[in-house]
């Protein structure tokens, strides 16, 4: 099912880097900038999440928070987070269920059966769990427009 702006964001329950199970619903005291990355420690994903890290104060002052999801496991995500001093959770969707729920799955990477990853994507979700903004790239090397995300958050406040 394709998700669009105005749809309810699917809830999830995924492990963070400390093996704590986290749900989208627990973060909805603020808007959520939900960033799906292709793979922990890949250069473009590192650039993307470091940009969100460096924009944390501005994003937070606009009433939002960042959550990243990769289909890597919690240990790979933990090493990635510690290396880059990320100040937001990175959740592991290692069975790709949430990635499927958000309709951003790329299956069988390099023709390897069940080697899946997420399309690089950003969703902004409001406090009621409604998708306000959606950006999905077919090109895993393309970064989101960070200024567009900040401007969108500014417009919503």
TrEMBL record:
Signal peptide positions (record): none
Molecular function in Gene Ontology: antioxidant activity; oxidoreductase activity
Protein name: Thioredoxin domain-containing protein
Domain Thioredoxin residue range list: 3-157
Organism the protein comes from: marine metagenome
Taxonomic classification: unclassified sequences, metagenomes, ecological metagenomes
One matching Pfam family: AhpC-TSA
Regions annotated as coiled coil: none
Keywords for this protein: Oxidoreductase, Redox-active center
């Amino acid at each position: 099912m394709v998700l669009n702006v105005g749809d309810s964001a699917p809830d999830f329950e995924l492990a963070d880097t400390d093996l704590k199970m986290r749900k989208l619903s627990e973060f909805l005291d603020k808007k959520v900038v939900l960033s799906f990355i292709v793979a922990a420690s890949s250069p473009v994903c590192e650039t993307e999440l470091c940009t969100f890290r460096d924009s944390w104060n501005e994003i937070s002052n606009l009433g939002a928070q960042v959550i990243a999801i990769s289909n890597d496991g919690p240990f790979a995500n933990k090493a990635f987070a510690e290396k880059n001093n990320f100040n937001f959770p990175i959740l592991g969707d290692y069975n790709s269920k949430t990635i499927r729920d958000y309709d951003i799955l790329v299956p069988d990477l390099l023709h390897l059966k069940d080697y899946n990853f997420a399309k690089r994507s950003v969703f902004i979700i409001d406090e009621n769990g409604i998708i306000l903004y959606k950006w999905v790239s077919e090109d895993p090397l393309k970064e989101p427009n960070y200024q567009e995300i900040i401007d969108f958050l500014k417009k919503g406040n």
